[in-house]
Amino acid sequence: MAAVLRARGAAIPANLSDYTPSKVEALTGIPGASVEKAAALLASAKVLSTLFGGLYASSPDLAAEVLPLLDTMKQRRVLVLHEASNAAGLLGAGAVTAAPGEIQESVRSGKVKTLVVAGVSPETAGLTAADLDSLHLFASFTTVPTPLETEKAEVLLPMAAWTEREGSFVSLTGQLLRQPKGALPYGDSRSLVRILSNLSRKMNANLPAVESALRR
Fold it and tell me: What is the pLDDT of residues 23-78, one digit of tens each?
């Protein structure tokens, strides 16, 4: 945002004055020239949207800093995204969450013998190759498999990226947002809802068809 304000020739708030392209490069490794180029493109855009991640949007302190900046840029078109696109829907369906430590304990104690991950690598839960070897079945639906998944997964299905699928999700503000498909799925990848729908039919389960699930 500081770079966009500079590109527009607008005044920069004091709390952002230190955020120069060179400082961003030192902190992130992203070339300062790339930051300036991106800022110039954003500054000249006819329509500009700001995407907030779930943790970011749920912080009142961060929101209090960002919203005035958006107003300075005359940019009021904002989409609030959830870290897990339909987490609100999952919680509404009675799903429960587990911390990485709980997943580790469940696998290492033998309580969990089958593990299916979708869009999340086992490393995220702190699981090792030995942990996965102890399972009866490890399956992964993934967009980009990690080396551990490639080596240890008995079932590895290519999952379409979020830009390659359509559907809807509920944001942190409770808004129902429609998600159009931005590109065709790469190779043989399929959306998670299509993978689950097809698997449910193979298992004679009573999950809705793909088209019905997408409408939900």
Answer: 888 888 888 888 888 888 878 877 666 666 655 555 666 666 776 777 776 665 55
> Could you tell me if 122 and 149 are in contact, meaning their C-beta atoms sit under 8 angstroms apart?
yes
Stretch (H or E) spanning 33: helix 32-43
**Domain 98-166+179-216 class in CATH:** alpha beta
Q: How far is CA 103 from CA 75, 112, 113, 135, in A?
A: 42, 8, 11, 13
Q: Which residues fall within 8 angstroms of residue 206, CB to CB, at 6 or more apart?
A: 200
For the chain, give every domain's residue range. 2-80, 98-166+179-216
Predicted TM-score (pTM) of the model is 0.53
What does the alpha-carbon distance between residue 29 and residue 21 come to, in Å, rounded to a whole number? 11
